[in-house]
């Protein structure tokens, strides 16, 4: 069966520090991968998605970036965090093709101080 | 641009009631619609996925319907229980895309 792993679960980082969040999927190949952010009291905002290795689509211009170095690995990064980057970051995967739904990871709570 | 709206934003009901959560979307050209549940501080759990060619899907006490022409979906929860308390989100995958657009959710509280 397929599983999705996301870590760390919580993170407290100072303003201006770098960020690296990792997401991996097991039990499938060539998944579509997604990064969402959920700010306090707000809806889910799609940040990046990828339909293949090395392919990244950016939805929101900001100081975050994403990479997909391996088929089942998706990384969210920042060189310098802002206070406004605080939030709940969720990784999701779906099978290739548009008929499939999402499966989400357990999320990372990021607090920038 | 696809927009997804969920009404009501919050709902409080006594245990045992049957209830309906609503989801509206502006563009009827969709591949599918998915309902999720989110417990506080947790990730999203998939409840039901309805393809554009389907009218409804059922899982246990949950039933989701889809009316593409009117841009609406409902999630029916039968015999609600305190364990059903959570935020329920619907998400729509628009035609020509790989991504879901989410509603802002309905926060449900079932009172014992």
The description of the largest β-sheet of chain A is:
7 strands, mixed
Record field, number of beta strands of chain A: 11
Query: How many DSSP H or I helices of chain B?
Result: 0
Distance between the termini of chain B: 41 Å
Terminal Cα span of chain A: 39 Å
Order of helices and strands of chain B: EEEEEEEEEEE
Order of helices and strands of chain A: EEEEEEEEEEE
Strand content of chain A: over 45%
Describe the oligomeric state of these chains in a short phrase. Answer: heterodimer
Number of helices of chain A: 0
Q: How many beta strands in the DSSP annotation of chain B?
A: 11
User: Which blocks of ≥5 consecutive residues of chain A have pLDDT under 50?
Assistant: none
Q: Major β-sheet of chain B, in short?
A: 6 strands, mixed
- Backbone shape of chain A: globular
Mean pLDDT of chain A: 92
Q: Beta-strand percentage of chain B?
A: over 45%
State the helical fraction of chain A: under 10%
Gyration radius from CA atoms of chain A, angstroms: 13 Å
* Global mean pLDDT of chain B: 95
Fraction in helix of chain B:
under 10%
* Rg over alpha carbons of chain B: 13 Å
